[in-house]
Amino acid sequence: MEIDYLSAFFFAFLATCGFGFILQVPLKSLQTSGIIGAVGWVVFIHIARTLGHSTAYANFTATIIIALMSEFAARVSKQPVNIYVIPGIIPLVPGLGMYQGMTQIISGHYEYGMNILMHAGSDAGAIAMGMMLVTSIFRMFKITNEQGKVLREKMKKRQ
Questions:
Q1: Within 13 Å and on the Cβ side, how many CA atoms surround 156?
Q2: CB distance 104 to 112 below 8 Å
Q3: Read out DSSP for the chain?
Q4: Tens of pLDDT along 13-58?
Q5: pLDDT tens digit string along 70-119?
């Protein structure tokens, strides 16, 4: 089955912008947020469906892309990173898997429902790990730069 990347990009863009609007992202940042979410979704479907990797791996990789783009967009626009990263991950959230897993458990298909929930949980964990990784790296560089400024100021005072 051929994947139409353009329509996937378009609908992920709309979903991201819609959630961004609900979450009250500033209108000037809404389009950038939508592009970030759409790029993340296209990366996810390419890795999961075209390359055949697991959805957890695809979610992890797509989340890293989303988080990196969000960090750079936040630096350029001088806005908080959350207005880009939170709407950007919305297309990746495994809500359907959680719903289907709970529906199967309620229907009495415990083993199948738990299997679906385990996959959804691993996808959610991969999203969290991707966000933590990128955020930690950027925070480490920020702390290092701030410490460098303090050290340079102390050295100037000594001279």
A1: 6
A2: yes
A3: ----HHHHHHHHHHHHHHHHHHTT--HHHHHHHHHHHHHHHHHHHIIIIIS---HHHHHHHHHHHHHHHHHHHHHHHT--THHHHHHHHGGG--HHHHHHHHHHHHTT-HHHHHHHHHHHHHHHHHHHHHHHHHHHHHHHHHHHHHHHHHHHHHHHHH-
A4: 999 999 999 999 999 999 999 999 999 999 999 999 999 999 999 9
A5: 999 999 999 999 999 999 999 999 999 999 999 999 999 999 999 999 99
pTM to 2 decimal places: 0.85
Residue carrying the six token digits 């429902």: 113
**What residues contact 109, with CB distance under 8 A and at least 6 apart?**
none
Two tokens at 114? Answer: 């738990």
